[in-house]
Design goal:
alpha/beta; Rossmann fold; two-stranded antiparallel ribbon; 7 helices; 24% strand
Length: 178
C-alpha cells in the first residue's frame, strides 16, 4: 500500500444516489463497499456494478464476519464515507449494532479513530428525495430524525445534510491528509 485509501459504503438508500456516485467516481484511491440492499438499489436506479468496477474495487456483503473491515486496523483507510445511508443503517450505528458490512465498517472505523462522513437519507421533517421514477416528497418519522441527530454526536463522525455538503466535506478532508 503506497498511501491510505478512502472506504465508501453504499446502503439501500436511493436518496440522491446518482449524485453521490457521480462524485465518488471522480475520486482516486477509493474502495467501494455495497450492502445487499445497496446492490438492489443500484439496479433499481439503473446503475451497474461494472460501471463502478471500471474505476475502483468493489466489495460486496457476502460474508457473516465482513473480513475487509480488518483493513482499518492496518491503517489502510484514512476516511470512511457512507453515502447515501438508510435510516435502518443509521439506527444500527447509533445502537452500536454491527451486523452488516456497512455497520461493521462504521463500527471498526470508529474503533480505529478513522474519520467517518455520513449522508443519511432522513435529515428533515419534510424533504425531497429521489425515487427510481423521479423526485418525491417524504416525511421522515420522528424516530428516524432522532437517529440522525444522535449520530451527529458521535466521535470521529461528521453527518452531512446534502450532496453539496458531502462533496465539500470529503474534499476538505482529503486536503488535510499528508
Amino acid at each position: 500500500m503506497d498511501k491510505p485509501r478512502l472506504a465508501w459504503a453504499i446502503t439501500g438508500s436511493g436518496h440522491y444516489i446518482k449524485e453521490c456516485l457521480d462524485f465518488m467516481l471522480t475520486l482516486d484511491d477509493v474502495d467501494v463497499y455495497l450492502s445487499l440492499a445497496g446492490e438492489e438499489v443500484l439496479k433499481m436506479y439503473g446503475i451497474t456494478l461494472e460501471d463502478i468496477r471500471k474505476k475502483m474495487p468493489v466489495y460486496r456483503d457476502k460474508t457473516a464476519s465482513a473480513p475487509p473491515v480488518g483493513h482499518f486496523y492496518k491503517g489502510y483507510y484514512h476516511t470512511f464515507v457512507m453515502a447515501p445511508t438508510t435510516s435502518n443503517t443509521v439506527a444500527k450505528c447509533v445502537l452500536g449494532i454491527a451486523d452488516s458490512l456497512a455497520t461493521n465498517l462504521y463500527s471498526q472505523a470508529g474503533k480505529c479513530r478513522v474519520e467517518s462522513i455520513v449522508y443519511p437519507c432522513d435529515i428533515a421533517p419534510e424533504m425531497e428525495t429521489t425515487a427510481p421514477g423521479g423526485k418525491v416528497m417524504v416525511y421522515p418519522r420522528k424516530i428516524d430524525l432522532e437517529g440522525t441527530a444522535k449520530l451527529r454526536t458521535f466521535e470521529y463522525t461528521t453527518v452531512v445534510d446534502s450532496v453539496d455538503e458531502l462533496i465539500n466535506t470529503v474534499k476538505k478532508r482529503l486536503t488535510t491528509l499528508p
